[in-house]
């Protein structure tokens, strides 16, 4: 009974935050912070990455404003680059646990 009870109490849901936008414009007005739930285990061929840093590049701002030549399909997640560490891996991925 104690083990079962603890597994319910101690379970945690993995989630991530992302900045999304559904229209182009002033970044302060169009960006929305969104939390998404992740599966405890990534799909085959994928990894979970713990982000360490994600810079804001002038191209990111231009993309949000809609003036960059390449426009993503909306809605889109803001940003093009980041630095992180692989926290979970699945077979079929070219990345391994601990890779940066």
UniProtKB/TrEMBL annotation:
GO BP terms: fatty acid metabolic process
InterPro entries: ADH-like_N (IPR013154), GroES-like_sf (IPR011032), Mito_Enoyl-ACP_Reductase (IPR051034)
Keywords attached to this entry: NADP, Oxidoreductase
Entry GO CC: mitochondrion
Alcohol dehydrogenase-like N-terminal domain sequence ranges: 44-98
GO molecular function term, any single one: oxidoreductase activity
Entry keyword annotation includes Ubl conjugation: no
Protein's UniProt name: Enoyl-[acyl-carrier-protein] reductase, mitochondrial
């Amino acid at each position: 009974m104690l083990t079962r009870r603890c597994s319910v109490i101690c379970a945690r849901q993995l989630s991530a935050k992302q900045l999304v936008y559904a229209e182009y414009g002033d970044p302060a007005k169009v960006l929305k912070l969104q939390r998404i739930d992740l599966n405890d285990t990534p799909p085959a061929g994928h990894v979970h990455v713990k982000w360490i840093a994600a810079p804001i590049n002038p191209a990111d701002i231009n993309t949000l404003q809609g003036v960059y030549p390449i426009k993503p399909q909306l809605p889109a997640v803001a940003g093009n680059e980041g630095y992180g560490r692989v926290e979970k891996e699945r077979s079929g991925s070219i990345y391994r646990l601990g890779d940066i």
